[in-house]
Design goal:
The chain has one helix and six strands, in the order E-E-E-E-H-E-E. By secondary structure, it is mainly beta. It has a six-stranded antiparallel β-sheet, covered by helices on one side. A hairpin with an 8-residue loop joins strand 2 (about 10-20) and strand 3. The two termini are about 20 Å apart. Mean pLDDT is about 80; it is low at about 85-90.
């Protein structure tokens, strides 16, 4: 699936996976995207703030951001954006492999 959606400095390019939750609000999306500020490819995971896993995912992203190991993907950003009719928050961004 191709997208034209812009999330701040990130341009969503391709939907990689969509993991279905108990209802559409709980779906988790993985996007291949482009960071226009850093001029590089990234991966963006998108989930609703209403998802019961959201707090744990945010905590895991915050903990992963403190790890400095070249063998692991780095967390570069966590965004909490207003809902716009779909799953939108929180988001965490990692460099594409």
């Amino acid at each position: 699936m191709r997208a034209t959606e812009q999330l701040g400095r990130y341009q969503l390019l391709d939907l990689v996976t969509q993991d279905e939750g108990v209802d559409q609000r709980m779906d988790v999306y993985l996007w291949h995207a482009f960071d226009e500020t850093l001029d590089r490819a990234v991966a963006i995971r998108v989930m609703s703030a209403d998802d019961p896993r959201a707090a744990a995912v945010t905590g895991a992203a915050q903990a992963a951001a403190r790890v400095d190991d070249r063998r692991l993907l780095r967390v570069l950003d966590i965004l909490n954006l207003p809902a716009s009719g779909g799953a939108s928050e929180p988001r965490y961004v990692r460099p594409a492999a």
